[in-house]
C-alpha cells in the first residue's frame, strides 16, 4: 500500500508543496508515495491581484498540472484534523462527509481577513480577501452609476493602511471613474490607526505613498479606528461619521482556523511555530507552509509574512521535506534571507524596496513594470509539462 502525503490547500503554498514533493519522489525514482491535494477547487487564485478590476479572471486552472506530475486532486473543504489517527475529515463537493488518511500532512490552508466585532461590519462592508467577495465589490462598483448622484455614492472608504489597504485605495479613483464617468468628482478616504501616512510600510517608501496619495487624491485619516459601519458609511471611534455607499475592510489577517485543531504553539495571528525544516513543533507528522506557518527566514530574527513571496518558497521546502521525511533522506532547511516589497500605487505607478528595512530601489513607472511582471507572470504556476513543472519546484530557487 502506498504511503500518503496529504496537502490541504491549493493556494501558492499548497501548489508548490505538491510540486516539490513530486520532484523529490521523481528524483529518487519512488512510486510508493501518493501525493493528494485537498481543496475546494483545482485552481490557483491570484489573491495578490484581487484589488484590481476583472477579478473573476484572476485564477489559473491546476488539474492538468496535477495530472502531469501524478498528484491526485480531491475537491472538498477540510473540517478537522485528527493527528492521533492521522486523518483529515472534509466535506466533498456534494456536501457529504468524508475522510482522508495521511502518513505526512502539509497544512497549507492559507489565511483569511480578520473580522472584529465592529457593529455593521458584516452587513455593510466589502473586502478583497477572496475572489467571490472581490467580485461582489466589483459588481457593486459597476452598479453605482445607476444610483442617484450624491457624495456618498461617489465616496469609497477603505479601512486599513497596510499593503492591501493602500493598493486597494490607490486603485479606487480609476475604478470609480470607470463606473461613474470620467467627469465625476470622486473621493477615496483611507482610515488607518497609525499616526502617520504609510507608517506600517517603513520610512523608505513612505514618501512615495504620500506623493501617490496626493496626486491621486487619496485622503488619509490617521490615528483613527472604525467604531461602526452602516448603510450610509462609517462612524469613527471619535464620533465622526463619513458618508459612503462603499466601505472596504482590509484591516488584519488571521491564519486558517484549521491551525486551532492542532495541539501546538501559535503566534498572535494563529500561525503554527515550525522548525527549520517546516515541521510543526511538537508534531511528528505535520508540516506547515504559507500563511499558516510562523517560520524563521534567516538567523537574525526575521520571520515569514503572509505573502505569496514567502508562500512559494515555504511550499517548495515543506513539500520537499515532508517527502524526504517519508523517504528517509536529508531535508533542505528553509531559509529565505532576501526580502522585497513591490507596492502598487495605482495610476501613479508603484514603489519597489529591498531588505527588511525596505531600502528604496525603484519608483513610479520602473516599479510599475516590475509589479506587473510579478503579478501577471512570476507568481503564476508553471506549464502543465512534467519536466518543466518539477524543475520549477526546486527549493533552492530564490523567489525574490
Automatic annotation (TrEMBL):
Can you give the residue ranges of the FAD/NAD(P)-binding domain? 4-313
Q: Which Pfam families match?
A: Pyr_redox_2 (PF07992)
Query: What's this protein's family per the entry?
Result: Belongs to the NADH dehydrogenase family.
Keyword annotations of the record? FAD, Flavoprotein, NAD, Oxidoreductase
UniProt keyword Membrane, yes or no: no
User: What is the scientific name of the source organism?
Assistant: Pseudomonas fakonensis
- The name this protein goes by in its record: NAD(P)/FAD-dependent oxidoreductase
Amino acid at each position: 500500500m502506498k504511503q500518503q502525503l496529504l496537502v490541504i490547500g491549493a493556494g501558492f503554498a499548497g501548489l508548490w508543496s505538491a510540486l516539490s514533493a513530486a520532484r523529490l519522489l521523481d528524483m529518487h525514482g519512488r512510486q510508493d508515495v501518493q501525493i493528494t491535494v485537498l481543496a475546494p477547487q483545482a485552481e490557483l487564485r491570484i489573491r495578490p491581484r484581487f484589488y484590481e478590476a476583472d477579478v473573476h479572471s484572476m485564477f489559473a486552472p491546476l488539474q492538468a498540472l496535477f495530472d502531469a506530475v501524478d498528484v491526485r486532486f480531491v475537491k472538498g473543504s477540510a473540517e478537522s484534523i485528527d493527528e492521533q489517527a492521522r486523518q483529515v475529515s472534509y466535506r466533498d463537493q456534494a456536501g457529504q462527509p468524508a475522510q482522508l488518511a495521511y502518513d505526512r500532512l502539509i497544512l497549507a490552508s492559507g489565511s483569511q481577513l480578520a473580522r472584529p466585532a465592529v457593529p455593521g461590519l458584516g452587513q455593510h462592508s466589502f473586502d478583497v480577501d477572496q475572489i467571490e467577495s472581490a467580485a461582489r465589490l466589483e459588481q457593486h462598483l459597476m452598479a453605482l452609476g445607476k444610483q442617484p448622484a450624491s457624495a456618498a455614492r461617489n465616496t469609497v472608504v477603505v479601512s486599513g493602511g497596510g499593503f492591501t489597504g493602500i493598493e486597494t485605495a490607490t486603485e479606487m479613483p480609476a475604478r470609480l471613474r470607470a463606473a461613474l464617468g470620467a467627469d465625476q468628482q470622486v473621493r477615496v478616504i483611507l482610515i488607518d490607526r497609525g499616526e502617520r501616512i504609510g507608517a506600517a510600510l517603513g520610512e523608505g517608501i513612505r514618501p512615495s505613498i504620500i506623493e501617490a496619495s496626493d496626486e491621486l487624491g487619496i485622503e488619509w485619516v490617521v490615528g483613527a479606528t472604525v467604531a461602526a459601519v452602516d448603510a450610509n458609511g462609517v462612524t469613527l471611534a471619535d464620533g465622526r461619521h463619513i458618508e459612503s455607499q462603499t466601505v472596504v475592510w482590509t484591516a488584519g489577517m488571521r491564519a486558517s482556523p484549521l491551525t486551532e485543531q492542532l495541539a501546538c504553539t501559535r503566534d498572535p495571528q494563529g500561525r503554527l511555530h515550525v522548525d527549520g525544516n517546516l515541521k510543526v513543533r511538537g508534531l511528528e507528522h505535520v508540516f506547515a507552509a504559507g500563511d499558516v506557518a510562523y517560520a524563521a527566514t534567516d538567523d537574525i530574527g526575521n520571520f515569514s509574512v503572509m505573502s505569496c513571496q514567502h508562500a512559494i518558497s515555504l511550499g517548495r521546502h515543506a513539500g520537499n521535506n515532508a517527502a524526504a521525511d517519508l523517504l528517509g533522506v536529508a531535508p533542505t532547511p528553509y531559509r529565505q534571507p532576501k526580502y522585497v516589497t513591490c507596492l502598487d500605487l495605482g495610476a501613479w505607478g508603484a514603489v519597489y524596496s529591498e531588505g527588511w528595512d525596505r531600502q528604496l530601489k525603484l519608483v513610479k513607472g520602473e516599479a510599475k513594470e516590475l509589479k506587473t511582471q510579478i503579478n501577471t507572470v512570476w507568481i503564476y504556476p508553471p506549464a502543465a509539462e512534467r519536466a518543466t513543472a518539477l524543475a520549477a519546484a526546486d527549493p533552492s530557487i530564490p523567489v525574490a
